[in-house]
């Protein structure tokens, strides 16, 4: 150990003066640091025992100055003063600490000192506290997170590799023990168990944990800090107590050796009495402080020197301690009496040893003052006497303490024995229980195996029984099935026999029922026939009754008529009677004159009636002649007539009205149109008035009814067997459709008139059939307007067929509707209007882009005269005649307009050709002229309406149309001939 510390202390014990070793210096520094960390408790903070201790041993700073080196007597006095503490504490009424609570807890029983389970956060334990000698917590070393305690120290002695922890002793006490106790047993592990004041003085065979707990408890007690007194007595006492601790350490070392170096980590032992703890605390602290003083005084005998002496047995009682102190004192005295080397005097011989020994050469030294030395010895002797006195007092206190400790030790021994006994009994019980558990386990296993064998055997038996039962059940089932089958067969036979009987019986019943039903059916049939006859009779009676009823109704009507006639006759007769009575009265007065007068009047009346009849007959004859004459007039005048109609201005928004004048309202055959402005060569702007004359000019105020009145004779001509063609020509929006197809236009009025005429002609034995068709010429193609686009077959195109012999035209594949009533004509017109191609242009929203032709074929027969006639009425609504440039049509509309213009030009060409009497009339140049071939010229009567717009904007078109109409009007296209012929 010395070599480890590098100390140079001589091994000889004669000098007893050794320089402080490095380890001792380190220990001294450790103790000094510990003392710095000590928080000196105030008297009020000290435990009661310690407070009493302080009362008994008050500090005496005046006896000896602090700077003065302490002598052995001083340390002995310290020992006595300190050793009294535990005794006083034992004698006082110190309340024992609670179980599990150390003395440190008593000093500061705050919650912060409660033992924590967590290593990382555990506050310094009481053991650590004892190591650090004060409340100041020692910072954690690098050896581990957990503060190193006496427990860990004890663990290191348990053979673990903890020798490296010796680099820094945990506590001053531990440092002292480790470094200053060159005991072989202690140095084996480099550590030693903490000293314990209550350690048994001899090795015992008691339980090791108890001893360990006592050691730990003693170390924890060392954490109690007691202020160090500067008095020499206290130093001496500390020295003594330190020696006593080392004695105990020796004893503990012996115990360690007794338990073969094995140490069990003590369990938590809280059974140490607080008085013992307190005593140990005081002693250990005193030891620490005294050792520090010893280190400061190298001349004083140290504990190591005492411990190093193997001859001197360690004192085991305070008496021995005192004796040892005395011997120490004597040794010190010898040293003191030994001539010292004066520091200022040179050494007679140069010795390499720094201390005085018996071999030291003292020759040459100056003699020292004996008197002074005696005084010093006397003073020291006095002090020694005082120390002795105090030591005796201390001895008594220590003996009390020892007695108390012995008592406590005995109690604990007893308790330990009891615990050992209980432990052994519990161990034996545990062993017994283990044996029982083992035997029970074996029994259980045996039982389980036997039970398993039993279960397997029983399962085999059950399986066998189950198989047997299955076989039996199968046999039983088969037997039962056989029995049931036989029973079923027997039952079947039985029921079959019963069924046969039942069937024969039922068949007999059915036969009876059938015969009965037949007879009943015959009866019912007979009854039904009777009922039929009755019903026929009833029906005949009903018929007869109906007829009777009708006859009765007729008779009733006749009677009613007769009654009415009779009533009238009665009234007439009454009137005549009244007249006759008046006449009788008159006659009675002047009968002859009155009778003559009556006869003359009667003759005049008869004459008037005769004249009236003659006039009526003459009227009829003249009417017939007029019609003949009209037709002859038509034939003579030419068969084309032109009428002009000007529509009214519908809305002022249409624009400025053109200047159209009608000069001759009587004849109504002229229209004067003020032409557009013209600039002459002289620059004079003027507007010409262009006069146009036609067969009839209709002003804007003329209604359709008046217009129809003018053409009704033409319609009548159709009934007389003429081909009549009425067509409207004019620009878009001039009123063509309005005139021809409106609700009161020419077509409805013509049909209505024809119906009326047909009805009238029935009296003359004429019967007519009327068939209508409606076609359209669009882009030089014929379309049937009475057939919708869905119904029409594109493969069946309309074709124009002419019958040259009959001068009639037929459109093949065109739908022809028999018109039996005026309502059918209206329906046909509406249908045609829907199917007609109407497209919008810039000239007119509702511009008709096609020519529509309504063909009404009239066939009449006169049953009386045998005459037959076929006439055709063509009502044509031409498309707009506006010029292409004006219409601004594009694309498809342009093509439409071109076709329209072409067909209209062809119409003009045909009329021109007819007027010229050309042999070839270009009917086939257009579909329109081709369709109207026999309605233009020949035996046809043609009427052209030239429609005029009243607007100034349409003036040019108006003039163009009027010029074209004038051209037509001036054309003589032949004589119309009636188709009326006698029926062969
Ligand atoms: N005499 C009239 N009295 C009142 N309104 C008329 C008369 N004539 C024409 N109209 C009106 O003028 C408008 C154009 O007439 P309509 O459609 O008959 O012209 P259009 O010559 O047939 O034109 P399109 O060639 O485009 O068919 C219509 O709204 C019609 O009602």
UniProtKB/TrEMBL annotation:
What PROSITE patterns does UniProt report for this protein, alphabetically? KINESIN_MOTOR_1, KINESIN_MOTOR_2
Query: One Pfam family name from the record?
Result: Kinesin
Q: Which GO terms describe its cellular component?
A: microtubule
What positions belong to coiled-coil segments? Answer: 395-632
Q: Where in the cell is it found?
A: Cytoplasm, Cytoskeleton
Q: What is its main location?
A: cytoplasm
Polar residues bias locations: 31-48, 104-130, 147-160
Q: Where is this region: Disordered?
A: 1-167, 268-315
Q: Does the keyword Cytoplasm apply?
A: yes
Example GO biological process: microtubule-based movement
Per the record, the similarity remark reads: Belongs to the TRAFAC class myosin-kinesin ATPase superfamily. Kinesin family. KIN-14 subfamily.
Name of the protein: Kinesin-like protein
**Organism of this sequence:** Thyridium curvatum
């Amino acid at each position: 150990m010395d070599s480890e510390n590098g100390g140079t202390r001589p091994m000889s014990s004669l000098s007893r003066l050794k320089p402080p070793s490095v380890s001792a210096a380190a220990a001294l520094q450790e103790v000094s640091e510990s003392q710095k960390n000590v928080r000196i408790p105030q008297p009020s903070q000290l435990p009661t025992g310690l407070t009493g201790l302080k009362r008994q041993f008050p500090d005496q700073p005046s006896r000896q100055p602090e700077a003065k080196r302490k002598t052995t007597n001083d340390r002995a006095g310290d020992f006595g003063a300190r050793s009294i503490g535990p005794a006083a504490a034992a004698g006082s009424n110190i309340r024992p600490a609670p179980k599990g609570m150390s003395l440190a807890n008593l000093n500061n029983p705050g919650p912060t000192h409660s033992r924590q389970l967590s290593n990382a956060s555990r506050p310094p334990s009481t053991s650590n506290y004892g190591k650090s000698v004060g409340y100041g917590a020692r910072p954690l070393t690098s050896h581990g997170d957990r503060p190193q305690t006496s427990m860990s120290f004890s663990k290191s002695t348990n053979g673990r590799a903890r020798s490296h922890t010796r680099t820094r002793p945990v506590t001053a006490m531990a440092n002292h023990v480790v470094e200053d106790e060159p005991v072989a047993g202690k140095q084996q592990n480099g550590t030693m168990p903490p000293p314990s004041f209550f350690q048994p003085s001899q090795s015992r065979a008691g339980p090791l944990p108890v001893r360990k707990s006592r050691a730990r408890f003693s170390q924890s007690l060392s954490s109690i800090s007691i202020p160090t007194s500067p008095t020499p007595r206290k130093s001496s006492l500390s020295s003594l107590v330190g020696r006593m601790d080392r004695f105990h350490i020796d004893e503990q070392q012996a115990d360690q050796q007794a338990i073969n170096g094995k140490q069990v980590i003590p369990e938590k032992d809280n059974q140490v009495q607080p008085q013992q703890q307190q005593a140990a605390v005081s002693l250990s602290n005193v030891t620490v402080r005294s050792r520090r003083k010893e280190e400061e005084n190298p001349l004083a005998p140290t504990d190591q020197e005492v411990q190093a002496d193997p001859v001197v047995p360690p004192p085991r009682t305070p008496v021995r301690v005192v004796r040892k102190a005395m011997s120490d004192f004597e040794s010190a005295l010898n040293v003191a009496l030994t001539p010292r080397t004066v520091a200022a005097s040179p050494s007679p011989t140069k010795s390499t040893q720094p201390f005085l020994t018996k071999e030291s050469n003292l020759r040459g030294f100056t003699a020292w003052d004996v008197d002074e030395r005696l005084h010093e010895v006397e003073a020291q002797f006095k002090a020694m006497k005082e120390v002795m006195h105090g030591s005796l007092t201390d001895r008594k206190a220590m003996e009390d303490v020892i007695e108390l400790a012995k008592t406590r030790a005995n109690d604990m021994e007893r308790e330990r024995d009891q615990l050992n006994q209980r432990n052994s009994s519990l161990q034996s019980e545990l062993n017994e229980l283990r044996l029982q558990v083992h035997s029970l386990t074996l029994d259980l296993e045996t039982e389980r195996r036997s039970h398993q064998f039993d279960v397997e055997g029983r399962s085999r038996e059950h399986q066998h029984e189950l198989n047997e039962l299955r076989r039996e059940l199968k046999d039983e089932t088969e037997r039962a099935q056989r029995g049931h089958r036989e029973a079923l067969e027997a039952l079947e036979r039985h029921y079959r026999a019963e069924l046969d009987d039942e069937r024969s019986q039922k068949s007999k019943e059915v036969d009876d029922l059938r015969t009965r039903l037949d007879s009943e059916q015959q009866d019912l049939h007979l009854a039904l026939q009777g009922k039929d006859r009755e019903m026929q009779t009833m029906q005949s009676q009903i018929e007869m009754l109906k007829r009777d009823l009708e006859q009765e109704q007729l008779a009733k009507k006749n009677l009613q008529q007769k009654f009415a006639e009779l009533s009238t006759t009665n009234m007439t007769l009454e009137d005549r009677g009244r007249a006759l009575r008046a006449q009788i009265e008159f006659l009675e007065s002047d009968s002859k004159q009155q009778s003559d007068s009556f006869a003359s009047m009667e003759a005049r009346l008869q004459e008037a009636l005769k004249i009236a009849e003659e006039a009526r007959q003459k009227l009829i004859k003249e009417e017939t002649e007029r019609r003949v004459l009209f037709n002859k007039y038509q034939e003579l005048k030419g068969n084309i007539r032109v009428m002009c109609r000007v529509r009214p201005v519908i809305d002022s928004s249409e624009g400025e009205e053109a200047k159209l004048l009608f000069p001759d309202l009587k004849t109504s055959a002229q229209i004067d149109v003020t032409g557009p402005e013209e600039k002459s060569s002289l620059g004079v702007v003027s507007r010409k008035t262009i006069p146009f004359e036609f067969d009839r000019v209709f002003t804007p105020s003329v209604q359709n009814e008046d217009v129809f009145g003018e053409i009704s004779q033409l319609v009548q001509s159709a009934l007389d067997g003429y081909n009549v063609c009425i067509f409207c020509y004019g620009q878009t929006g001039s009123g063509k459709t309005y005139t021809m197809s409106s609700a009161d236009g020419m077509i409805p009025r013509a049909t209505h008139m024809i119906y009326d005429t047909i009805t009238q002609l029935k009296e003359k034995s004429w019967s007519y059939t009327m068939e209508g068709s409606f076609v359209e010429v669009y882009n030089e193609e014929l379309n049937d307007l009475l057939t919708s686009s869905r119904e029409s077959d594109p493969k069946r195109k309309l074709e124009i067929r002419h019958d040259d012999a009959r001068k009639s035209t037929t459109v093949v594949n065109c739908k022809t509707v028999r018109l039996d009533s005026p309502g059918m004509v209206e329906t046909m017109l509406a249908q045609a209007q829907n199917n007609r191609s109407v497209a919008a242009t810039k000239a007119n929203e509702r511009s008709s882009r096609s020519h529509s032709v309504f063909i009404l074929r009239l066939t009449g027969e006169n049953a009386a005269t045998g005459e037959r006639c076929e006439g055709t009425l063509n009502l044509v609504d031409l498309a707009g005649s506006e010029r292409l440039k004006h219409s601004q049509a594009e694309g498809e509309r342009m093509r439409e307009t071109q076709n329209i213009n072409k067909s209209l030009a062809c119409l003009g060409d045909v009329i021109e050709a007819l007027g010229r009497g050309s042999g070839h009339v270009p009917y086939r140049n257009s579909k329109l002229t081709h369709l109207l071939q026999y309605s233009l010229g020949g035996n046809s009567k043609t009427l052209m309406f030239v429609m005029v717009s009243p607007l100034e904007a349409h003036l040019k078109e108006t003039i163009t149309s009027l010029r074209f109409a004038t051209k037509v009007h001036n054309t003589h296209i032949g004589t119309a001939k009636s188709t009326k012929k006698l029926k062969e």
